[in-house]
Every structure is written in C-alpha cells, then in structure tokens.
Amino acid sequence: MRTLTYWLSFILAFFLRFKVLILVGLVIGVVIFLGSNLIIPRIFANNTETIGVTGRFSPDSLPVEILEDIGDGLTKLAVDGIVEPNIADSWETPDKGKTWVFYIRDDVIWQDGQKVISADVNYQFSDVTIEKPDERTVVFKLKDPFSPFPSVVARPFFKKGFLGTGEWKVTNVSLAGTFVQSLSLEKMGEAKKIYKFFPTEERTKLAYKMGHVDKIAKIIDPKPLDTWETTSFDKNIERDEVVTLFFNNEDDLFKDNKELRQALNYAINKDGF
Question: How many independent structural domains does the chain possess?
C-alpha cells in the first residue's frame, strides 16, 4: 500500500517534469477567464433597453412620449405648454380660429430619405376638412373656431409602417389582436429599446420583478419597488393629462340624488393629487 509520502513525491516529480506546461496552462486559463467575463461582454455589450408600460394601446393611440421618439407633428409643445414650430415653420388663421393654414419646412426628411410634403400629412379629424393646395401648404377648415388648434397638430404623424422623421426608427411591432404587445426601436444602429405593454400596473411590476423589463414608466403606485435598494425612481407630475370622474345621471342611484353626488365629490382627497 502506497503511503502519503509516496504520493507527495509523485506529485512533486510530476510538477517538476511538466512545470512549463502546467504554468502555460494556468496562464491560458486566466486569460480565457478574464476574456469571457470582462473583455468579451464589453465588446458585445447588450445595448438594448427594455421598458415596461401600463395600458392597452392600438398603433394609433400609443403614448405621445413614444411617438415623439419616432416622428414629429406640424408643431410641438414646449415644457411650459407653448406651441412651437416643428415640421411646419409657421401658421396663420385668417378668420380668427376657424381656418388654419400651416406651411411645411423645406428641409424635413422621412427616415426613407424622402422629403416631407403636404400629401404626407394624414391627421384624421372629425368635422375638419383638410386641403393641400401645394406641397408646402396644409389648410384645416373647422366648423367652429378653435384657438388651441395648433397644439392639436403637435401629435406626430407617420407614413405607412410607422415611418417617421425622428431619431428612432421602428424595427418591429408585435400585435395581440388590435393592441400593441411590443414595439422595437433602433437609433442609427447605435442603440435599441423595446417597449412592452401590460394591461395593469401589477402585471408591469411583475415583469420588472422577473427581469423581463429593465425599467417601467408611468406607474401611479411604486410600492413595493420603492423599497428595493437596487431600484431608483424619478417622480414627475403629468401636467398634460387629466383624470375625470363621470357620474351616470341616468342611473337610479345618481338620478335625483344630488346629495350622493356631492358626498362622493367631497370624499375624494383632492389634496392627495
């Protein structure tokens, strides 16, 4: 039976005989380890950001924040709500708000390289007649005067296939019925982001917890994520959105019951908003 001394002597002799090969192997192993864990991930870094959004949206009703990455409107709204030129460099109303004439800039290009002309303006408004007398002029004729109309055409418009004029280009749209399930964008081949849409805030938070999205946007209640040390939050007041509560006065519960309607109104903690 071989003793411990024998095995130690055997290992020492083996090392002395093959020490060069052993040292070379160790060096190669360290290089491979560092390369696979530090160098290669940096070279092939994942530059895709996945964002979870709560809500069911059709392609025509996506949030403006997303649409503004892809395209532009005739106008745009500044932070203070002032209407500024965008695709249209100027506009006028010859009859105090009933007719609006917009003049398109000559240097706006679609993502396919084509110049934006009046024929591309495809807003769908009810009770509004749209005329395009030339390539740079779009005329909106309303039934009644409406002075804020320039803010309405701040919403981006697109060519077929979500082709816009913005920095981000749509690479894929996944639909579940009529609703958008995911929307993939790419910025000049440098960065990518994917929007994933969930019907409820709880589903959105669950997707974040499971690592299906990198961040979530526009949630009302951050709990319990606000206690996570690895998660940071930005709080913003959406001053361009309104939440309205309607009472069905044809319902027997509310009809001829002014006191109940008032009680519900007073019960809302408005200061909390």
Answer: 2
